[in-house]
Design a protein that fits this description.
Helix content: 10-25%
Number of domains: 3
Shape: elongated
CATH superfamily of the largest domain: Metal-dependent hydrolases
CATH topology of the largest domain: TIM Barrel
Number of strands: 28
Structural class: mainly beta
Amino acid sequence: MTEVRTIKYIVKASQRKQYLKIPFEVPENVEKMIISYAYPGDFASSLPSDNKSVIDFALLDNTGKEVGATGSSHRTIVISPNFSTPGYNACDVNSGVWTIICGAYMIQFEELEITYTIEFFYKHYRWLKGDLHLHTVSSDGKYTIEELSAKAVKSDYDFITITDHNNFFHMKRLPSIPNLTIIPGVELSHYNGHMNFWGLEVPYTKPYCVNTFDEFKELHAEARERGAIISINHPFCSLCPWRWDIDQIDFNTVEVWNGPMRPDNIKAYNWWHQQLLKGRKLPAVGGSDYHKDRGPKKLWGIPTTYVYARSASKEDILQSIKEGRICTSKDAKHQPVTITAGDKTVGDTVSLADNGTVEVNVPILPRNNTLTVYNNDKIIYRYKSKARKAHYASIKVTEKGFVRAEITYRPSFSETLVNRVILYVSNRDKMFMRLPDFIHSFTNPIYFK
Protein backbone atom coordinates (compact mmCIF):
# COMPACT_ATOMS: atom_id res chain seq x y z
CA MET A 1 0.00 0.00 0.00
CA THR A 2 2.78 2.40 -0.94
CA GLU A 3 3.55 4.65 -3.89
CA VAL A 4 6.89 6.24 -4.78
CA ARG A 5 7.20 9.45 -6.76
CA THR A 6 10.39 11.15 -7.91
CA ILE A 7 11.07 14.83 -8.57
CA LYS A 8 14.18 15.94 -10.51
CA TYR A 9 14.94 19.58 -9.78
CA ILE A 10 17.70 21.73 -11.31
CA VAL A 11 19.28 24.50 -9.26
CA LYS A 12 21.45 27.01 -11.13
CA ALA A 13 24.53 28.71 -9.75
CA SER A 14 22.75 32.06 -10.11
CA GLN A 15 20.19 30.87 -7.54
CA ARG A 16 22.80 30.35 -4.84
CA LYS A 17 21.62 31.38 -1.36
CA GLN A 18 18.00 31.56 -2.41
CA TYR A 19 15.02 29.62 -1.04
CA LEU A 20 13.30 27.84 -3.90
CA LYS A 21 9.80 26.39 -3.70
CA ILE A 22 9.03 22.99 -5.18
CA PRO A 23 5.30 22.12 -5.06
CA PHE A 24 4.12 18.52 -5.12
CA GLU A 25 0.74 16.82 -4.87
CA VAL A 26 -0.16 14.64 -1.89
CA PRO A 27 -2.97 12.22 -2.80
CA GLU A 28 -5.95 11.28 -0.66
CA ASN A 29 -5.82 8.65 2.08
CA VAL A 30 -2.12 8.94 3.00
CA GLU A 31 -1.12 7.78 6.48
CA LYS A 32 2.62 8.49 6.37
CA MET A 33 5.04 10.23 4.01
CA ILE A 34 8.82 9.81 3.73
CA ILE A 35 10.82 12.34 1.71
CA SER A 36 14.48 11.81 0.89
CA TYR A 37 16.82 13.78 -1.35
CA ALA A 38 20.26 13.44 -2.87
CA TYR A 39 22.58 15.32 -5.24
CA PRO A 40 26.19 15.07 -6.52
CA GLY A 41 28.71 15.89 -3.82
CA ASP A 42 26.14 15.23 -1.12
CA PHE A 43 27.03 15.14 2.57
CA ALA A 44 29.63 17.88 2.39
CA SER A 45 29.98 19.94 5.56
CA SER A 46 28.02 23.17 5.78
CA LEU A 47 31.12 25.32 6.23
CA PRO A 48 31.18 27.96 3.44
CA SER A 49 33.18 27.06 0.33
CA ASP A 50 33.00 27.50 -3.44
CA ASN A 51 34.11 23.91 -3.99
CA LYS A 52 31.03 22.06 -2.77
CA SER A 53 27.27 21.97 -2.88
CA VAL A 54 25.02 22.13 0.20
CA ILE A 55 21.24 22.00 -0.11
CA ASP A 56 18.97 22.73 2.86
CA PHE A 57 15.49 21.31 3.37
CA ALA A 58 12.23 22.55 4.85
CA LEU A 59 8.59 21.61 4.30
CA LEU A 60 5.25 23.41 4.08
CA ASP A 61 1.92 21.61 4.33
CA ASN A 62 -1.13 21.96 2.07
CA THR A 63 -2.17 25.18 3.86
CA GLY A 64 1.24 26.81 3.48
CA LYS A 65 2.06 26.29 7.15
CA GLU A 66 5.62 25.32 8.02
CA VAL A 67 5.90 21.68 9.08
CA GLY A 68 9.59 21.85 9.93
CA ALA A 69 13.12 22.61 8.81
CA THR A 70 16.44 20.85 9.41
CA GLY A 71 18.86 22.61 7.09
CA SER A 72 21.19 20.05 5.53
CA SER A 73 21.41 17.80 8.60
CA HIS A 74 18.85 15.18 7.43
CA ARG A 75 18.47 13.49 4.07
CA THR A 76 15.35 11.52 4.99
CA ILE A 77 12.30 13.09 6.63
CA VAL A 78 9.33 11.17 8.02
CA ILE A 79 5.95 12.86 8.45
CA SER A 80 3.01 11.17 10.19
CA PRO A 81 0.40 11.97 12.86
CA ASN A 82 2.20 9.94 15.54
CA PHE A 83 5.85 10.50 14.77
CA SER A 84 7.86 12.82 12.57
CA THR A 85 11.60 13.30 12.18
CA PRO A 86 12.96 15.60 14.92
CA GLY A 87 12.59 19.13 13.68
CA TYR A 88 9.18 18.44 12.10
CA ASN A 89 5.68 18.57 13.48
CA ALA A 90 3.85 15.26 13.87
CA CYS A 91 0.76 15.93 11.78
CA ASP A 92 -1.79 14.45 9.40
CA VAL A 93 -0.61 14.03 5.84
CA ASN A 94 -3.56 15.83 4.29
CA SER A 95 -4.19 15.77 0.56
CA GLY A 96 -3.37 18.82 -1.53
CA VAL A 97 -0.32 20.71 -2.69
CA TRP A 98 2.61 20.60 -0.25
CA THR A 99 5.85 22.50 -0.82
CA ILE A 100 9.48 21.51 -0.44
CA ILE A 101 11.72 24.45 0.44
CA CYS A 102 15.02 23.95 -1.37
CA GLY A 103 17.65 26.07 0.33
CA ALA A 104 20.38 26.61 -2.30
CA TYR A 105 23.08 27.42 0.25
CA MET A 106 26.12 26.43 -1.83
CA ILE A 107 26.21 25.44 -5.52
CA GLN A 108 29.50 24.10 -6.85
CA PHE A 109 28.50 23.72 -10.51
CA GLU A 110 26.64 25.83 -13.05
CA GLU A 111 23.71 23.47 -12.57
CA LEU A 112 23.00 21.00 -9.78
CA GLU A 113 20.38 18.24 -10.16
CA ILE A 114 18.61 17.27 -6.94
CA THR A 115 16.56 14.10 -6.77
CA TYR A 116 13.66 14.14 -4.32
CA THR A 117 12.04 10.77 -3.63
CA ILE A 118 8.62 10.86 -1.97
CA GLU A 119 7.09 7.66 -0.63
CA PHE A 120 3.40 7.65 0.32
CA PHE A 121 2.09 5.00 2.73
CA TYR A 122 -1.64 4.69 2.20
CA LYS A 123 -4.19 4.04 4.91
CA HIS A 124 -5.54 0.50 4.85
CA TYR A 125 -7.38 -1.65 7.33
CA ARG A 126 -5.20 -4.03 9.32
CA TRP A 127 -4.95 -5.45 12.82
CA LEU A 128 -3.04 -3.24 15.26
CA LYS A 129 -1.79 -4.58 18.58
CA GLY A 130 -1.65 -2.76 21.89
CA ASP A 131 -2.90 -2.09 25.41
CA LEU A 132 -5.75 0.20 26.51
CA HIS A 133 -5.07 0.37 30.25
CA LEU A 134 -1.65 1.37 31.61
CA HIS A 135 -0.39 3.25 34.67
CA THR A 136 2.82 5.25 35.12
CA VAL A 137 4.73 6.94 37.92
CA SER A 138 2.23 9.79 37.57
CA SER A 139 -0.21 7.69 39.60
CA ASP A 140 0.64 4.32 41.17
CA GLY A 141 2.66 2.68 38.40
CA LYS A 142 6.35 1.84 38.57
CA TYR A 143 7.46 3.04 35.14
CA THR A 144 7.59 6.29 33.20
CA ILE A 145 5.79 6.69 29.88
CA GLU A 146 9.15 6.35 28.13
CA GLU A 147 9.83 3.05 29.92
CA LEU A 148 6.37 1.71 29.08
CA SER A 149 6.92 2.78 25.48
CA ALA A 150 10.16 0.77 25.38
CA LYS A 151 8.25 -2.28 26.63
CA ALA A 152 5.61 -1.68 23.96
CA VAL A 153 8.18 -1.47 21.17
CA LYS A 154 9.79 -4.69 22.41
CA SER A 155 6.37 -6.37 22.28
CA ASP A 156 5.76 -5.13 18.71
CA TYR A 157 2.84 -3.02 19.90
CA ASP A 158 1.34 -0.46 17.55
CA PHE A 159 -0.36 1.58 20.28
CA ILE A 160 -0.65 2.10 24.01
CA THR A 161 -3.03 4.20 26.09
CA ILE A 162 -1.89 5.90 29.29
CA THR A 163 -4.66 5.86 31.89
CA ASP A 164 -3.33 7.10 35.21
CA HIS A 165 -5.74 7.44 38.13
CA ASN A 166 -7.38 10.88 38.15
CA ASN A 167 -4.34 12.50 36.55
CA PHE A 168 -3.91 13.71 33.00
CA PHE A 169 -1.62 16.72 33.39
CA HIS A 170 1.29 14.85 31.78
CA MET A 171 -0.78 14.07 28.65
CA LYS A 172 0.49 17.29 27.03
CA ARG A 173 4.05 15.94 27.24
CA LEU A 174 3.65 12.56 25.58
CA PRO A 175 6.82 11.39 23.83
CA SER A 176 7.00 10.76 20.10
CA ILE A 177 8.15 7.19 19.38
CA PRO A 178 8.65 5.76 15.87
CA ASN A 179 5.93 3.27 14.90
CA LEU A 180 4.08 3.62 18.23
CA THR A 181 0.88 5.58 18.79
CA ILE A 182 0.55 6.85 22.36
CA ILE A 183 -3.06 7.69 23.10
CA PRO A 184 -3.79 10.12 25.96
CA GLY A 185 -6.25 9.01 28.59
CA VAL A 186 -7.20 8.95 32.24
CA GLU A 187 -8.86 6.46 34.57
CA LEU A 188 -11.46 8.42 36.50
CA SER A 189 -11.22 6.46 39.72
CA HIS A 190 -13.92 6.80 42.35
CA TYR A 191 -14.54 4.61 45.37
CA ASN A 192 -17.72 3.47 43.61
CA GLY A 193 -16.23 2.63 40.22
CA HIS A 194 -13.56 3.28 37.59
CA MET A 195 -13.90 4.58 34.02
CA ASN A 196 -11.34 5.10 31.28
CA PHE A 197 -11.59 8.23 29.13
CA TRP A 198 -9.49 7.86 25.96
CA GLY A 199 -8.32 10.29 23.33
CA LEU A 200 -8.15 13.69 25.05
CA GLU A 201 -5.39 15.55 26.85
CA VAL A 202 -8.04 17.21 29.04
CA PRO A 203 -11.30 15.22 29.17
CA TYR A 204 -12.90 17.30 31.93
CA THR A 205 -12.12 20.59 33.68
CA LYS A 206 -13.60 20.16 37.15
CA PRO A 207 -11.77 18.32 39.97
CA TYR A 208 -12.22 14.54 40.01
CA CYS A 209 -12.97 14.41 43.75
CA VAL A 210 -16.77 14.24 43.67
CA ASN A 211 -19.01 12.58 46.22
CA THR A 212 -22.27 11.84 44.44
CA PHE A 213 -23.25 9.90 41.33
CA ASP A 214 -24.79 13.07 39.86
CA GLU A 215 -21.48 14.91 40.25
CA PHE A 216 -19.64 11.95 38.72
CA LYS A 217 -22.03 12.03 35.79
CA GLU A 218 -21.26 15.73 35.28
CA LEU A 219 -17.57 14.87 34.73
CA HIS A 220 -18.64 12.00 32.49
CA ALA A 221 -20.95 14.27 30.46
CA GLU A 222 -18.23 16.87 29.90
CA ALA A 223 -15.77 14.20 28.73
CA ARG A 224 -18.34 12.75 26.36
CA GLU A 225 -19.18 16.22 25.01
CA ARG A 226 -15.48 16.87 24.39
CA GLY A 227 -15.23 13.65 22.38
CA ALA A 228 -13.71 11.11 24.77
CA ILE A 229 -14.23 7.39 24.16
CA ILE A 230 -15.44 5.99 27.47
CA SER A 231 -14.95 2.50 28.90
CA ILE A 232 -16.33 1.18 32.16
CA ASN A 233 -13.54 -0.78 33.85
CA HIS A 234 -13.53 -4.15 35.66
CA PRO A 235 -17.22 -3.76 36.62
CA PHE A 236 -17.35 -7.01 38.66
CA CYS A 237 -13.94 -6.83 40.33
CA SER A 238 -14.03 -8.21 43.88
CA LEU A 239 -11.85 -5.36 45.18
CA CYS A 240 -13.02 -2.30 43.22
CA PRO A 241 -16.23 -3.08 41.30
CA TRP A 242 -18.73 -0.69 39.72
CA ARG A 243 -21.08 0.02 42.63
CA TRP A 244 -23.32 2.64 41.04
CA ASP A 245 -26.25 1.75 38.75
CA ILE A 246 -24.58 0.59 35.55
CA ASP A 247 -27.77 1.24 33.59
CA GLN A 248 -27.79 4.94 34.54
CA ILE A 249 -24.64 5.97 32.71
CA ASP A 250 -23.51 5.75 29.07
CA PHE A 251 -20.24 4.22 27.91
CA ASN A 252 -18.78 3.18 24.57
CA THR A 253 -17.10 -0.05 25.71
CA VAL A 254 -16.83 -2.35 28.70
CA GLU A 255 -13.55 -3.78 29.96
CA VAL A 256 -14.45 -7.45 30.43
CA TRP A 257 -10.85 -8.68 30.71
CA ASN A 258 -8.72 -6.85 33.26
CA GLY A 259 -5.24 -8.19 33.93
CA PRO A 260 -4.69 -11.94 34.35
CA MET A 261 -7.75 -14.12 33.74
CA ARG A 262 -9.76 -14.80 36.89
CA PRO A 263 -13.41 -15.40 37.93
CA ASP A 264 -14.13 -11.65 38.16
CA ASN A 265 -13.36 -11.33 34.46
CA ILE A 266 -15.62 -14.27 33.63
CA LYS A 267 -18.46 -12.51 35.46
CA ALA A 268 -17.95 -9.38 33.35
CA TYR A 269 -17.63 -11.46 30.18
CA ASN A 270 -20.89 -13.33 30.86
CA TRP A 271 -22.65 -10.04 31.69
CA TRP A 272 -21.50 -8.65 28.34
CA HIS A 273 -22.85 -11.71 26.52
CA GLN A 274 -26.23 -11.14 28.14
CA GLN A 275 -26.19 -7.53 26.94
CA LEU A 276 -25.62 -8.78 23.41
CA LEU A 277 -28.56 -11.16 23.74
CA LYS A 278 -30.72 -8.18 24.73
CA GLY A 279 -29.83 -6.55 21.41
CA ARG A 280 -27.27 -4.10 22.74
CA LYS A 281 -24.29 -3.46 20.46
CA LEU A 282 -21.71 -2.96 23.19
CA PRO A 283 -18.02 -3.45 22.30
CA ALA A 284 -15.92 -5.41 24.79
CA VAL A 285 -12.23 -4.72 25.39
CA GLY A 286 -9.37 -5.99 27.48
CA GLY A 287 -6.78 -4.02 29.41
CA SER A 288 -3.74 -5.16 31.35
CA ASP A 289 -4.16 -2.45 34.01
CA TYR A 290 -0.39 -2.73 34.22
CA HIS A 291 1.30 -1.07 37.18
CA LYS A 292 4.29 -3.36 37.65
CA ASP A 293 5.16 -7.05 37.79
CA ARG A 294 4.27 -8.86 41.01
CA GLY A 295 7.21 -10.91 42.22
CA PRO A 296 8.00 -13.57 39.62
CA LYS A 297 4.66 -13.01 37.87
CA LYS A 298 5.11 -10.98 34.69
CA LEU A 299 1.96 -8.95 34.03
CA TRP A 300 2.91 -6.86 31.01
CA GLY A 301 0.59 -7.36 28.05
CA ILE A 302 -1.94 -9.56 29.86
CA PRO A 303 -4.26 -9.32 28.00
CA THR A 304 -3.41 -7.74 24.64
CA THR A 305 -5.98 -5.92 22.51
CA TYR A 306 -6.11 -6.05 18.71
CA VAL A 307 -7.94 -3.27 16.85
CA TYR A 308 -8.88 -3.45 13.16
CA ALA A 309 -8.19 0.13 12.06
CA ARG A 310 -7.60 1.94 8.77
CA SER A 311 -4.46 3.61 10.11
CA ALA A 312 -2.34 3.85 13.24
CA SER A 313 -3.57 7.35 14.03
CA LYS A 314 -5.17 7.96 17.40
CA GLU A 315 -8.42 8.96 15.74
CA ASP A 316 -8.70 5.85 13.56
CA ILE A 317 -7.83 3.48 16.40
CA LEU A 318 -10.42 5.02 18.71
CA GLN A 319 -13.06 5.08 15.98
CA SER A 320 -12.56 1.35 15.40
CA ILE A 321 -12.81 0.67 19.13
CA LYS A 322 -16.07 2.61 19.20
CA GLU A 323 -17.34 0.50 16.29
CA GLY A 324 -16.40 -2.78 17.99
CA ARG A 325 -13.57 -3.76 15.63
CA ILE A 326 -11.73 -5.49 18.46
CA CYS A 327 -10.38 -8.90 19.36
CA THR A 328 -8.53 -9.73 22.57
CA SER A 329 -5.86 -12.31 23.28
CA LYS A 330 -4.20 -13.79 26.33
CA ASP A 331 -0.91 -11.95 25.90
CA ALA A 332 1.33 -10.16 23.43
CA LYS A 333 2.74 -13.44 22.05
CA HIS A 334 -0.58 -14.95 20.94
CA GLN A 335 -2.58 -13.72 17.97
CA PRO A 336 -6.34 -13.69 18.54
CA VAL A 337 -9.12 -15.66 16.95
CA THR A 338 -10.79 -13.61 14.19
CA ILE A 339 -14.04 -13.96 12.26
CA THR A 340 -15.13 -12.58 8.90
CA ALA A 341 -18.22 -12.71 6.69
CA GLY A 342 -17.02 -12.07 3.16
CA ASP A 343 -15.24 -8.73 3.33
CA LYS A 344 -16.89 -7.85 6.65
CA THR A 345 -15.39 -8.37 10.08
CA VAL A 346 -16.13 -7.79 13.76
CA GLY A 347 -18.19 -4.68 14.39
CA ASP A 348 -19.82 -4.83 10.96
CA THR A 349 -23.48 -5.54 10.19
CA VAL A 350 -24.27 -8.08 7.46
CA SER A 351 -27.49 -9.09 5.73
CA LEU A 352 -28.18 -12.73 6.56
CA ALA A 353 -29.98 -13.15 3.24
CA ASP A 354 -26.92 -11.94 1.32
CA ASN A 355 -24.19 -13.62 3.35
CA GLY A 356 -25.02 -16.39 5.80
CA THR A 357 -21.54 -17.79 6.33
CA VAL A 358 -18.70 -16.81 8.66
CA GLU A 359 -15.06 -17.81 8.42
CA VAL A 360 -13.18 -18.34 11.67
CA ASN A 361 -9.40 -18.22 11.68
CA VAL A 362 -7.07 -19.13 14.53
CA PRO A 363 -3.37 -18.64 13.70
CA ILE A 364 -2.36 -21.04 16.48
CA LEU A 365 -4.89 -23.01 18.53
CA PRO A 366 -3.07 -24.43 21.57
CA ARG A 367 -3.48 -28.07 22.49
CA ASN A 368 -6.57 -28.85 24.61
CA ASN A 369 -8.04 -25.41 23.92
CA THR A 370 -11.63 -25.23 22.71
CA LEU A 371 -12.88 -22.95 19.96
CA THR A 372 -16.58 -22.07 20.31
CA VAL A 373 -18.67 -19.98 17.92
CA TYR A 374 -21.97 -18.51 19.11
CA ASN A 375 -24.93 -17.41 17.03
CA ASN A 376 -26.81 -15.52 19.74
CA ASP A 377 -27.26 -18.07 22.56
CA LYS A 378 -26.72 -21.09 20.31
CA ILE A 379 -23.40 -22.83 19.77
CA ILE A 380 -23.01 -23.30 16.02
CA TYR A 381 -19.46 -24.65 16.10
CA ARG A 382 -17.15 -26.23 18.66
CA TYR A 383 -13.71 -27.77 18.22
CA LYS A 384 -11.17 -28.95 20.81
CA SER A 385 -7.61 -29.01 19.57
CA LYS A 386 -5.58 -32.19 20.00
CA ALA A 387 -2.36 -30.51 18.91
CA ARG A 388 -0.95 -27.00 18.73
CA LYS A 389 -1.69 -25.84 15.19
CA ALA A 390 -3.63 -23.38 13.05
CA HIS A 391 -7.36 -23.89 12.63
CA TYR A 392 -9.89 -22.60 10.10
CA ALA A 393 -13.63 -23.19 9.83
CA SER A 394 -16.43 -22.02 7.55
CA ILE A 395 -19.72 -22.00 9.43
CA LYS A 396 -23.33 -21.44 8.44
CA VAL A 397 -25.20 -18.72 10.33
CA THR A 398 -28.77 -19.71 11.16
CA GLU A 399 -30.27 -16.70 12.94
CA LYS A 400 -30.29 -12.93 12.77
CA GLY A 401 -28.57 -11.28 15.69
CA PHE A 402 -24.85 -11.73 16.22
CA VAL A 403 -21.99 -14.19 15.81
CA ARG A 404 -18.86 -14.19 17.92
CA ALA A 405 -16.04 -16.61 18.70
CA GLU A 406 -13.98 -17.50 21.75
CA ILE A 407 -11.19 -19.87 22.75
CA THR A 408 -11.28 -21.34 26.24
CA TYR A 409 -9.15 -23.74 28.29
CA ARG A 410 -8.80 -25.21 31.74
CA PRO A 411 -6.54 -23.09 34.01
CA SER A 412 -3.00 -24.34 34.44
CA PHE A 413 -1.52 -25.22 37.83
CA SER A 414 0.27 -21.87 38.09
CA GLU A 415 -2.87 -19.94 37.08
CA THR A 416 -4.89 -21.89 39.63
CA LEU A 417 -2.33 -21.10 42.32
CA VAL A 418 -2.35 -17.38 41.48
CA ASN A 419 -6.15 -17.33 41.57
CA ARG A 420 -6.19 -19.05 44.96
CA VAL A 421 -4.01 -16.24 46.28
CA ILE A 422 -6.27 -13.59 44.69
CA LEU A 423 -9.36 -15.23 46.16
CA TYR A 424 -7.69 -15.45 49.57
CA VAL A 425 -7.29 -11.65 49.49
CA SER A 426 -10.58 -10.71 47.83
CA ASN A 427 -13.11 -13.42 48.68
CA ARG A 428 -11.73 -15.98 51.12
CA ASP A 429 -14.94 -18.00 51.26
CA LYS A 430 -14.45 -18.95 47.60
CA MET A 431 -10.73 -19.60 47.79
CA PHE A 432 -11.11 -23.29 46.88
CA MET A 433 -13.96 -22.92 44.40
CA ARG A 434 -13.66 -24.80 41.12
CA LEU A 435 -12.38 -22.24 38.67
CA PRO A 436 -14.38 -21.74 35.47
CA ASP A 437 -12.87 -22.27 32.05
CA PHE A 438 -10.53 -19.40 31.26
CA ILE A 439 -10.52 -17.35 28.06
CA HIS A 440 -7.54 -17.51 25.74
CA SER A 441 -8.99 -15.19 23.09
CA PHE A 442 -12.34 -13.74 22.05
CA THR A 443 -13.85 -11.63 19.30
CA ASN A 444 -16.44 -8.92 19.30
CA PRO A 445 -19.51 -9.85 17.22
CA ILE A 446 -20.43 -9.57 13.60
CA TYR A 447 -24.08 -8.54 13.53
CA PHE A 448 -26.62 -10.11 11.16
CA LYS A 449 -29.85 -8.43 10.13
